[in-house]
Amino acid sequence: MEGxxxxxxxxxxxxxxxxxxxxxxxxxxxxxAATPRGERPVGVVLCSAFAQEEVCTHYGMMAxxxxxxAAGLPTIRFDYAGTGDGDDRxxxxxxxxxxxxxxxxxxxERCGVGAVILGGVRLGAAVAMQAAxxxxxxxxxxxxxxxxxxQAFMRETRASASIASLSxxxxxxxxxxxxxxxxxxxxxxxxxxxxxxxxxxxxxxxPACPALLIPARGDRRPGKxxxxxxxxxxxxxxxxxPDYEGWMQDPTTNETPQATFAAVTAWAAEQGAGxxxxxxxxxxxxxxxxxATDWVEEPVRFGAxxxxxxxxxxxxxxxxxxxxxxxxxxxxxxxxxxxxxxxxLARRLAAAGFASLRMDLTGMGDSPAGDNPRHPHYDPExxxxxxxxxxxxxxxxxxxxxxxxxxxxAHTALQVTLADPRVAGHxxxxxxxxxxxxxxxxxxxVRDNKRSLKGYLRAMRNPGEWRRMFAGEADxxxxxxxxxxxxxxxxxxxxxxxxPPAPGSETALVRExxxxxxxxxxxxxxxxxxxxxxxxxxTMQFGARARRLAAxxxxxxxLLDRADHHFNGREARTRFYDLAITTMQTVTAEHGVPTAPAxxxxxxxxx
Length: 607
Hints:
The protein has about 600 residues and is an alpha/beta fold. The chain is built from 18 helices and 22 strands. The strands form 4 sheets. Strands 11-10-7-6-4-5-2-1-13 form a 9-stranded mixed beta sheet, with helices on both faces. The chain has a 9-stranded mixed beta sheet with strand order 14-15-16-18-17-19-20-21-22, sandwiched between helices. Strands 3-12 form a two-stranded antiparallel sheet. A hairpin with a 3-residue loop joins β14 and β15 (about 295-300). α1 crosses α8, α4 (about 150-165) packs across α5 and α10 crosses α11 (about 410-420). The longest helix is centred in the last third of the chain and has 22 residues, at about 570-590.
């Protein structure tokens, strides 16, 4: 989460179904006029990782792009088509390489660079190597924790999926199956799995340009490849990656690998020294918006110093309802949502006639941390950022809002609802805490975020859970400690629930909050998976099965079976989407006005 301010500019851009960012020096990229032929500096194309590994590394990639740009190397990073904020086409390995070739052309056209350095992380490193053949004048390759053996990568990916709780809902199919693989809500088609498994770069031909290899700790393949390239006469450098594990983990607790990025930037700057001629390249149209049959999206920056970033999605062919959705992410992802859930939800809402803003809190996704080093979730100072999102929707003509959030994002959505009367409803999933005490450690919350006893009993039917236990990967002592702690807490609250809550107690405050929402006729929809640990909090505040919640109508609690904590399972996610649209319709019927401003047609592709 940490980072330092760097004097660079970031410009969002769409091209060929991809969404990307151009990072340049403080003066920004060129105006976009035709690049004059002549001598130009070197630029950098960064190819992202894939699926959950991209989520883990997303914020760090922004930091790396900033550092490269500050060193005089204009940089582009981007979501491949079919991923992130890109369009919804099927993902193929050839498509990822083509996107990279187009990204290089956009960087050259918009920033006036000559040769390019191709860099990639994990699967993105393999994509960069494949794309290099289609890009004229590649100055260097930077391969960061590269996937050199697709077969080993897919074996590890499938093994991780098989021991995850999600595998009990969406089982991992056989390797030769034609069924998709679900990892953290990301769906890998059978064809794409086979393509990735077919990657074998362990004996790749030595490149004509200099190369930097930074292996993940314990991976010997990059070192062997470097030795083979060096023996073939290539200029190869190697760097250790001591901070890899701290980066490649849930964004709630991960850390940007500043030391490694400093070394990468220094190496790239050496390769970029001197001027390079601009080779011929195809023109790739760029645009300020992305549109499909039912929706149109545009990137927006807002809040103090425009430090906050989001994607505004609106219906394309109909005037939107006057009530819009504000999508607030949790700690384990950024504005795209777990497994791209918020991207899919926003586009479904648009098809149903509703606009939405999916936004990043500072220190996550594409909103820089600024001067606040604390994790954004459960931080009361971030409530104002959610209100800034409501302001941005109001500027677009939407007077009322329904706030969405999951887990820690549910807490943020609840607090934003309490803070701003323009919020007429919320849909919050698996809320863990109504009240967060300022100064509590987010890492303690993560440690104590265990499943319910019912969840563990159900998990015993999942072979993957037994494999985790026998492999020593299950925190049995922590599970016992947390379940025991919850049991005592439930017993205490059961006794106390026979009497009215003590004035000033946490339960009294929670009920006062719900009474305030009921007085505003806020449609508070709280959805829980039926084995989520957050149900213990509901029981402590509102009694068994939240029976006292009925006193705060139109608030309601909905239990969904066969749902994991993040609603990554295919069936649970579809039910969530349906409930979201129903809630938007209900809130609009009570709080909306006839129509909001119609969406202007998408702008022409920029030259």
